[in-house]
């Protein structure tokens, strides 16, 4: 007898891997001793326990660097990608301005994560010129649009490698040369791409790149910023402190989290290629079933240039929130987790040309390391049922009641 048949609670089917991921068992095993047994401060190098923690932190730094294709000296640890993005964008332009650089333009893209958009917009109060570039219907930035914006001398350009809502990949190979030719710095938020697609910050010609552990089966609360050494990129720190992390990010490092971050990077390097192949197969099989069952279902964003695990689906005639309400057994979302409490259309989807109604009919899901083929078959069945129930509920709400009919008749008399 199954758990469902016996009346036991069945855990929800998690398909929101772009919001966060569970810690890999190898990550958990690596972290646990550092919470209690080996609790030394990695900055207290005058004694054995401090040096032990420092060595563990440096091993983790090497693992993160290897995943990114960076030198170990180019990795600065942070609390996550949000902090890394803020340090990269604000730190770079403030340093250049303080050195007398007369350029004021800072460029990003309309579909970026909010922490990037807000970092760029915040700089307007300091006399900088924020420019937010549009994307096409496929969610990608056209290099000619970027080239035109770079006609005005520019300090920095920030373009994410993979979008957190649609999974769409920007053509960094075509965009980076435009930035380099204009003499601007190039930053990329690679939090969604790291561990899922091949990354090499040198091959991508990046000056700065932000990554987060919890997007690749590591712990929450830790991330990193890649800062190019040759040619040297200099940053103004966001806050004052003890000068840890090369003076760019002061504060005591969280050794257990960093050990977990390093372990997650090691696992990702080992399994990425096979994992991407498997996830693509799961995603595409699921999409075929959904397309066959729901005429008019569409995918938002480019299918050819997309993370292996992601789908952003647009239903033809029901709101995504109504579908989710009828599918409590499944964990999916209407967009980025940071915006899920807001009763407004996804700014990512509206930037791609969708109106408020179409954006409201859109749902994000992503398979992950622990998703099986049976899970995806179950997910398709749940969502198809939920769509039918949401349609029926909507039609019932639209049908006039007896009292409504009477009132209409009274109005006609």
What does this structure look like?
Catalyzes the removal of elemental sulfur atoms from cysteine to produce alanine. Seems to participate in the biosynthesis of the nitrogenase metalloclusters by providing the inorganic sulfur required for the Fe-S core formation. It catalyses: (sulfur carrier)-H + L-cysteine = (sulfur carrier)-SH + L-alanine. It comes from Gluconacetobacter sacchari. The chain is built from 13 helices and twelve strands. With 413 residues, it is of the alpha/beta class. It folds into two domains: 13-21 and 273-398, Aspartate Aminotransferase, domain 1 (Alpha-Beta Complex), CATH 3.90.1150.10; 25-267, 3-Layer(aba) Sandwich (Aspartate Aminotransferase, domain 2), CATH 3.40.640.10. A seven-stranded mixed β-sheet has the order 2-8-7-6-5-3-4, with helices on both faces. It has a three-stranded antiparallel β-sheet with strand order 9-10-12. Strand 5 (154-158), helix 7 and strand 6 form a beta-alpha-beta unit. 44% of the residues are buried. Mean pLDDT is 92; it is low at 1-5 and 404-413.
């Amino acid at each position: 007898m199954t758990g469902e048949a016996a009346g036991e609670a069945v855990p929800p089917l998690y398909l929101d891997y772009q919001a966060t991921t569970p810690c890999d068992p190898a990550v958990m095993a690596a972290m646990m001793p550092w919470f209690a047994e080996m609790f030394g401060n990695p900055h207290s190098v005058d004694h054995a326990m401090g040096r032990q923690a420092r060595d563990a932190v440096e091993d983790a730094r090497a693992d993160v660097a290897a995943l990114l294709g960076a030198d170990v000296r180019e990795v600065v640890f942070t609390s996550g990608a949000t902090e890394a993005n803020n340090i990269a964008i604000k730190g770079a332009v403030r340093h250049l301005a303080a050195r007398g650089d007369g350029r004021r333009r800072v460029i990003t893209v309309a579909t970026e994560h909010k922490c990037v958009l807000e970092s760029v917009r915040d700089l307007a109060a300091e006399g900088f010129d924020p420019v937010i570039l549009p994307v096409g219907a496929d969610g990608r930035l056209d290099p000619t649009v970027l080239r035109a914006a770079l006609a005005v001398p520019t300090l920095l350009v920030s373009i994410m490698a993979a979008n957190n809502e649609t999974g769409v990949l920007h053509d960094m190979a075509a965009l980076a040369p435009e930035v380099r030719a204009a003499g601007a710095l190039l930053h990329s938020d690679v939090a969604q791409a790291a561990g899922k697609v091949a990354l090499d910050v040198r091959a991508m010609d990046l000056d700065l790149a932000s990554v987060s552990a919890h997007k690749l089966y590591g712990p929450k609360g830790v991330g990193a910023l890649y800062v190019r050494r040759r040619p040297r990129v200099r940053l103004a720190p966001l806050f004052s402190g003890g000068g840890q992390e090369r003076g760019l990010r002061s504060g005591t490092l969280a050794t257990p989290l960093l050990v977990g971050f390093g372990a997650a990077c090691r696992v990702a390097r080992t399994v990425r290629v096979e994992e991407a192949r498997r996830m693509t197969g799961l995603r595409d099989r699921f999409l075929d079933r959904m397309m066959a069952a729901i005429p008019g279902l569409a995918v938002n964003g480019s299918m050819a240039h997309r993370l292996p695990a992601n789908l952003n689906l647009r239903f033809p005639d029901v709101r995504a929130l109504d579908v989710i309400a009828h599918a409590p057994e499944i964990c999916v979302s209407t967009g980025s987790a940071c915006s899920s409490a807001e009763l407004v259309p996804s700014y990512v989807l509206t930037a791609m040309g969708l109106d408020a109604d179409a954006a409201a009919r859109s749902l994000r899901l992503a398979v992950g390391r622990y998703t099986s083929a049976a899970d995806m078959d179950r997910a398709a069945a749940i969502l198809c049922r939920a769509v039918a129930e949401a349609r029926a509920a909507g039609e019932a709400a639209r049908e006039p009641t007896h009292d409504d009919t009477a009132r209409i008749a009274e109005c006609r008399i």
